[in-house]
């Protein structure tokens, strides 16, 4: 057990599988909303006088779907961590987010810690629609999650560091 953690730290693969499960769960409402938006924002239309086909506004579609998806993921993470310190994926894998130095795994995170953690993890996705910035956001997201592999002794990702949290095993 690492100093500052009330239980043994979660394994990297547990964290990854929990994220993948959460992504599958969140893909459903995200897909439904983006599918509906595609019909509104990118609906092709035919100009019968000229015979030209207008393919719609793909920029607006990209902007809306990116921002809406980021808000869905941010809200889910924030609400679940504040309530119990666990998302559905974390519950299924028996892991939980707790504050560094906490001596208990009971309850959820304080609102400020949950907001910092969710904000650093999903917040950058809000600007991913900007062409060059999207590439930087992708690189930041990769470094963020890989940080746990060289961070010692708490194996924190950057979003954990921002919120002073660790992910521990509860099962």
UniProtKB/TrEMBL annotation:
Transmembrane regions: 23-46, 58-76, 126-150
Entry-linked Pfam families: RDD
Membrane topology: Multi-pass membrane protein
Keyword Aminoacyl-tRNA synthetase among record annotations: no
InterPro entries on file: Pra-immunoreactive, RDD
Compartments (UniProt record): Cell membrane
Domain RDD: 10-163
UniProt keyword Transmembrane helix present: yes
Sorted UniProt keywords: Cell membrane, Membrane, Transmembrane, Transmembrane helix
Name of this protein: RDD domain-containing protein
Species name: Planomonospora alba
